[in-house]
Amino acid sequence: MAEKKSGGKLRYEELAYDKKNYFETASEEERTAMFDYAEGYKAFLDAAKTEREACAEAVRLAKKAGFTEFKFGDKLSAGDKKYFINRGKSVVVFRVGTENMEEDGMRIIASHIDAPRIDIKQNPLYEEAGMCFLKTHYYGGIKKYQWTTIPLALHGVVVLKDGKKVEIKVGEDADDPVFYIDDLLPHLGAEQMSKNGTKIIDGEQLNIVVGGMPYADKDVSDKVKLTVLEYLNKEYGMKEEDFLSAELSAVPAYPARDVGFDRALIGAYGHDDRVCAYPALTAVLNNDSRHTVLAMLVDKEEIGSEGNTGMQSRIYSDLMEEICEALGASFRKVRYASKCLSSDVTAAYDPNFAGVFEKMNSALVSCGTCMSKFTGSRGKSGSNDANAEFVGEVRAMFDGDGVVWQTAELGKVDAGGGGTVAKYLANLNIDTVDLGVPVISMHSPWELISKADLYSNYRAFIAFMK
After folding, report:
1. CA separation (Å) from 465 to 32, 341, 360, 374?
2. Are 403 and 368 in contact (CB under 8 A)?
């Protein structure tokens, strides 16, 4: 017999707000769709461990879906499916809609495809104590001690002295060697463990072991270094000088994996922010919207969105202006009418570290993609802080399409904070709000997300583009 609810309980359910676990409310068909979608996402993660690889994989998927490259000066018309590559490190994938852009604007989703990692210095190679190392400079905000004693792969490009560019990717295949940053054994670690967490491992200690075999010549001083140089020369045509014009990064060598007996979660490197970039990309590829829709997959967010591939670059506004000109529309009018989701991850409430969260305003795992009206720190500093009217508009889009979603802020007031690319789009006079997947252990070599939140993010993008 069904429980009879009191008038007050019915009224509470009618008026109060509670977050919903998407797994609990999803139909069997939806659950199947969540798990199927996750397989494509995991394949994307494994193929895209650097921004260059993410850009290349996005282009591959776009071409497969019938998109063609756009270059400045090209003509456009309704129905065109295009992608624009910026220096091999960022890409904008877009569809031209049928609506009048001056009145309807563009629907933009902006995500980033770079992730925290360990970059190789320009003069890195040295030998000491029978081992050969590469010196490094870490990229983005990391806990340095997390990157020791894990298998690392080396990814990147080297431009040789003659101008030839060679790609390096070692450590991903089962028969590849991997690389390694050592740590101190606990038996000798008393002094180390008394240090502040930021000093347990210093930045200059993040040196990567890349060799240990001496070259067979007694007259050579750095025998192990020469063995490594000989290998690099044979495999890639490199000399030591070629490190000067190289972009090489060490990333975790393990693939994305399901986590838990029920396989509800995904553990991987680079969820931040490819867990938003992949849904943004696939939403544009799979959506036949009447609006003109863009997925901007950009670089350099982890270091302030700087440079000519970061969101602060003029290239992205120039591209939007070029699209407007190709369609005979006023860029200023289009900007004013446009809407943007700045899609970056947020921190998921972690019960093991509850002290830094304010639970009522924290994102809960599996309760859907998360809207953050504001980000920033110390009194919302550095935040876009979306207006209530636009939040209400996006809320109606999601609710109207049955999207399970939630809101949150990143931790307790004054506990920390973080920023996104939202403010750079908003500075163009585009209504913008943050939306992204909650992540456990963000910026670590092995982050955790829910398949329900991943799929909810994709569903939210589809609703936004309708």
Report:
1. 23, 10, 30, 22
2. yes
Question: How is residue 93 written in tokens?
Answer: 């994938």
What CA–CA distance (Å, rounded) separates 233 from 238? 4
Which residue in 364, 340, 355, 336 sits closest to 437, CA to CA? 364
- The predicted model scores a pTM of 0.96
Token duo for residue 364: 């809960």
- Region 235-261 average pLDDT: 98
Instruction: Report DSSP letters for 315-342, one per residue.
Output: HHHHHHHHHHHHTT--HHHHHHH-EEEE
Contacts of 161 by beta carbon, 8 Å cutoff, 6+ apart = 239, 241, 242
- Collapsed DSSP state (helix, strand, coil) of residue 356: helix
The sign of the torsion formed by the CA atoms of 144, 268, 343, 452 equals: negative
pLDDT digits (tens, 9 = 90+) for 291-319: 999 999 999 999 999 999 999 999 999 99
In the prediction, which pLDDT does 1 show?
54
Place of tokens 């969820």: 271
Could you read off the pLDDT of 102-145 as tens digits, one per residue?
999 999 999 999 999 999 999 999 999 999 999 999 999 999 99
454, pLDDT greater than 70: yes
> Do 210 and 228 touch, CB atoms closer than 8 A?
yes
Helix axes 28-47, 51-64, angle to 10 degrees: 130
* Backbone CA torsion sign across 272, 277, 278, 280: positive
- Tell me, what's the pLDDT at 50? 98
Tell me, what amino acid is at 455? Y
Query: What is the DSSP-derived secondary structure letter of residue 5?
Result: P
In 281-408, DSSP assigns E strands to 292-298, 339-342, 346-347, 369-372, 376-377, 405-407
Q: Which of 42, 38, 36 is nearest to 451 (CA)?
A: 38
CA distances for 346 relative to 132, 245, 364, angstroms = 39, 35, 10
Q: How many CA atoms lie within 13 A of 363 on its CB side?
A: 28
Label residue 382 by pLDDT band (50, 70, 90): confident
Going along the chain from its start, the domains and CATH numbers come out as 18-115+269-465 (3.40.630.10), 117-252 (2.30.250.10)
Structure tokens that stand for 90 in this block: 């960022």
For the beta carbon of residue 88, count every other beta carbon within 10 angstroms. 16
Three-state secondary-structure class, residue 177: coil
Q: Is the pLDDT of residue 264 over 70?
A: yes
Helix spans in 105-253 (H): 190-193, 223-236
Average pLDDT over the chain reads 95
Which residues, listed in sequence order, are joined to residue 69 by a DSSP beta bridge? Answer: 83
